[in-house]
Amino acid sequence: MHWRAQIQEEDTMGEAALKHADETWVYAFGGGTADGDASMKNLLGGKGANLAEMAKLGLPVPPGFTISTAVCTAYYELEREYPATLSPAGGCRAGRS
Question: How far apart are CA 72 and CA 70, in angstroms?
């Protein structure tokens, strides 16, 4: 089974997370902006979602990024290989283009 299909069937990440799972592997935050938010906890993890939310609120958060939990799912579905689109050679699509 294709890993994205499995994620959608399980529907454990919530509507906001599923919307972004097919499009983005990496979410940036810091400097008053963020690609994610607190509603994306299942996709970004608790720390990633909270850092994104704090950055959006304007709290002093050093710039950084969160690799989504969809990457972990894909890694194991691909027998411990990272998705080709995550590598720089594969044209990694970060949250900000």
Answer: 5
CB 65 within 8 A of CB 94: yes
SS3 34: strand
Q: What is the pLDDT of residues 4-16, one digit of tens each?
A: 434 443 444 444 4
Q: What is the pLDDT of residues 8-45, one digit of tens each?
A: 434 444 444 444 445 688 999 999 999 999 999 999 99
Coil, helix or strand at residue 26: strand
CA 41 – CA 17 distance, rounded (Å)? 8
Q: How far is CA 18 from the centre of its chain?
A: 10
CA atoms within 13 A on the CB side of 62: 1
Q: Are 38 and 50 in contact (CB under 8 A)?
A: yes
Q: Hey, what domains does the chain have and what are their CATH numbers?
A: 3-90 (3.30.1490.20)
